Amino acid sequence: MAAPVAKREAHRFSHHGVTVEDPYAWLKDPNYPDVSDKEVIHYLQAENNHFDDYMDRLSSSVDSLFEEIKARQPAADESVPYIKNGWWYQWRFAKDAQYRSWYRAPDENPEAWEILLDEVSLADGLEFFRLGSITVSPDGNKLAYSADTNGSERFTTRVLDLATRESLASPIANTIDGVVWNADSNGFLYTRVSEEWRPYQVWHHILGTTSDELIYEEADTSFFVSTDLAQSEQYVFISSGGHTHNEVYYLPRENLAAPLDLISARRENHEYHVDHGDGTFVIRSNREQVNFDLFQATDDTTSEDTWQKLVSGDATHYLTDHLVLKDRVILLERIDGLDQIRIIGRGGDEHRIEFPEDTYDAGLGSNPNFVTDTLRVTYTSMVTPNTVFDYDLTARSLETRKVQKIPSGYDPASYRSSRLNIQVRDHATVPLSLVYHKDTPLDGSAPLYLYGYGAYGLSIPPSFSSTRLSLLNRGFIFAIAHIRGGDDLGYQWYLDGKLEARPNTFNDFVDCAKHLIEHNYTSPGRIAIAGGSAGGELMGAAMNQAPELWGAIAAHVPFVDVLNTMLDDDLPLTPLEWPEWGNPITDSKAFALIQSYSPYDQLEARNYPPLLVTAGLNDPRVTYWEPAKFVAKMRYLRTNDAPLLLKTNMGAGHGGKSGRFDSLRETAEEYAFFLDLLSS
Questions:
Q1: Of the candidates 668, 665, 637, 613, which has an alpha carbon nearest to the alpha carbon of residue 48?
Q2: Domain check: are 489 and 392 in the same one?
Q3: Domain CATH code at residue 334
Q4: Which of 50, 433, 654, 658 is the catalytic position?
C-alpha cells in the first residue's frame, strides 16, 4: 500500500519580521481537544493503515519478540508489602493480568488479605485505563481513587466506603494527582485541572456535603499546583511553581479549612522543596548555590532569615531529594554523577548506605511512616535487575526483599557494562553508559541503540531493562547518553542544556555517537536512536544535524513542532514551557534560536534515515498534530524512499497503550523495526 500523502494548504504567519510557511497547519483540529474533523481523522487512519501494512511484513518478528519479552515478565507478580495505620498493603498482578489488584490485611492477621481495588474489573471493556492514585483514609475505612479512561490525563476521583463498597461522594471530574485526607477522615483536598489541562485549583471536600470550598487558585498560567502530605502528617503542603521557581503553602492536617501559611514567597530562580518532622520544616533550596543546600526552620517561623543550614551542596555534590523521619533526615544526593543515600541523625551523626557496584541507580521506595526503624530502598544497574531492600537504620544493614524475576532466565555474567566519559565539541565531558553481551564484538561491526532525553532536568539512570535483553542477545550494544539538559551531573548540567544553551543537548548526543564510531563500538548507519516527548525533539534535531549516522530512528510522541507550539499560548503547557525553551512571542532572539533547531522547521530536501513515529490522539502534553505534521512534511521533502511510519493511538495519550502487555507489544514493534533495518 502506498504511503498517504497529506494535502498542502497555504498558511503563513509573521513574527519579528520573519514569515513562516506552514502548509500542514490544517492537521490541528480547530475543535481540539475534541478531535472530530473528518479530514484529520481520515489522514491519521490512513497513516495507521500504512503502518499496519508495513508491520504485517514484520508480523512474525513482532510476535516472536513480544512473546520473548513477555516471557521475561512474571505471569503473576506482587509488590513488597508495607504497613500503615495498622494495615499491610500490597498490589498484585494475577496470572497474565494486564492490570493490578490492590489488597490489604490487618496487622494482627497479616494473612487475611482483602481486596481494596481491582483495576482489572475497572478496565474491563475499555480501550484505555490508567489508575492515577489510590489513598486510604487515616481511619482505614474509606478509599479515594482516580482513573483516566482515555489517555487525556484528566482523572475522575471517586470515594468508597470500604465496608459497604458504596460511593461516599459524587465522582469528581477533571482532577489530577491524589487526594490528601484530613486527620478526621471525613474530608480531603483534591486538585483540579483547567480546560487547558493546567493543575490550577485546590478544593476542599467534606463527605456528606455537595458544595466544595476553593482553597487555592493559581492565576499565573506558567505555574502548576500540587498537594502533598508532610512525612510527619501534621501539615499539608500546597505547592505552585514552574520550571525555575515556586512557592509552598502549608496548613494543619487537622483543619484543612484553616488559612494558608507561606514558607517563602516566589521569586525568580528560587526553587525549594519542603518536608516536616519533629517540630521543624526541612527545606531543600537553591537560594545560595545551584546544586541546592538543606536548611531547617522551626514551626514557629519559616521566615528565610531564620533558616539554618544543615547540609551544603557544591559543584560536584547535588542534593536531589530528602525525607524527614522522627529521628533522622534521609538525604538523596548525586556526587560526581553517582547516586548516594545519606542518613543524618538528630545528634549530627551521619553515614551513607553502601551499595555493591561502582555504577548504579538507587532511590527510595514506599516509606509511608514517620516513626520507623527501616528505610525501603530501590536499587538497579545496567546488569542488575530491579531490587527492593529494607535498610536497617540502626544496624546499618541491607535486607533484600525482592529481586525482579525473569522467568525465562537471566545470567548477569553474560553481559558487560561500562561508563565512558566523552569530550564533546565545546570540551565539556559527557558521561555515556554502555551494556552489551559478552560475545558482542567491539570492532565497529555491531549495531548500537543509543538513547537520550536531555530536558527538564530529568536524569536517565543506568538502570536494568529486561526488554532490552532481546537486542543485547542479538548483538546490539545499548548506550545511554547522559547529555546536558538532564541533571545527571547536577543542576548546572540541566541549565547548560536549556534556553539559549539548548543546542548543547543535540550536539552532545551527536558527538557521543561519533565517539562510539571513532572507538569502534559501531559504524555510521549502524546506529538506532530512540527518544520520546522532549527526547523525540532530540531525535528530530539529531536526524537533521547528522542524518548519515543513523540506521533507524524511533521518535515517540515527539515534541517536534517547537516553534508553533511555543507561539500558541492557548495550548495548556505553552506558558509553563517558556522558561525551558524561551518565549518566541516576545523575544526575537528566542524565536530565531527555536526556529534554528525546531525539527519540523528544519526539515529540507535531502535523504533521511528510516523513521518510526508515534502519537496519541488524546495526548495533552505533545499534541497529536506535531508528529503528524512532521511526518507529512518529511514525506513531501525527502529525496529517498526509506521507511517512514506514523502510528497514532486513537484511544490513548502521552504514554501509549495502558495494559502491561499491550505496552510491551509496542516495544516489540520498535525492536522489529530496528532489527529489520540493522541486523547483519
A1: 613
A2: no
A3: 2.130.10.120
A4: 654
Query: 211 and 296 share a domain?
Result: no
Query: Which of 533, 556, 561, 601 is an active site residue?
Result: 533
Instruction: Single out the residue in 375, 404, 433 at which a domain terminates.
Output: 404
Question: How much is the pLDDT for 389?
Answer: 97
Clarify whether residues 419 and 373 are in a common domain.
no
Domain match, 62 and 132 both: no
190 and 306, same structural domain? no
User: Taking Cα atoms as reference points, which of 353, 363, 366 lies closest to residue 392?
Assistant: 353
pTM: 0.93
Domains: count for the chain: 3
Domain that holds residue 358: 274-404
Q: How far apart (Å, rounded) are the C-alpha atoms in residues 45 and 599?
A: 24
- C-alpha of 478 from chain center: 20
Q: Give catalytic status of residue 619 as yes or no.
A: yes
User: Are 431 and 373 in a shared domain?
Assistant: no
Separation between Cα atoms, residue 3 and residue 24, nearest integer Å: 17
Q: How far is CA 126 from CA 369, 439, 551, in A?
A: 36, 44, 37
Domain shared by 354 and 471, yes or no: no
Question: Which of 382, 404, 426 is where one domain is finished?
Answer: 404
16 found inside a domain: no
The answer to whether residues 465 and 417 touch, using CB atoms and an 8 Å cutoff, is no
Cell numbers found for residue 28: 490541528
Q: Are residues 655 and 551 in the same domain?
A: yes
Judge whether 533 counts as a catalytic residue.
yes
What gap in Å lies between CA 595 and CA 597, rounded to an integer?
6
Residue 405 has which C-alpha cell?
Answer: 524475576
* 3-state DSSP assignment of residue 170: coil
Let me know if residue 628 belongs to a domain: yes
Contact 307, 282 (CB under 8 A): no
Q: Specify the pLDDT at position 485.
A: 97
CB 424 within 8 A of CB 430: yes
DSSP readout, 609-671? --EEEEEETT-SSS-THHHHHHHHHHHHH-SS---EEEEEETT-BTTB--SHHHHHHHHHHHH
Of 243, 465, 619, 658, the active-site residue reads: 619
Please list the rounded mean pLDDT of every run of 10 residues in the chain (680 residues): 92 95 96 91 97 96 96 95 96 94 96 95 92 96 94 91 95 94 97 90 95 95 94 97 94 96 95 95 97 95 93 94 96 93 91 90 96 97 97 96 96 96 97 97 97 95 96 98 96 96 98 98 98 96 98 97 94 86 96 98 98 91 94 97 95 67 91 93
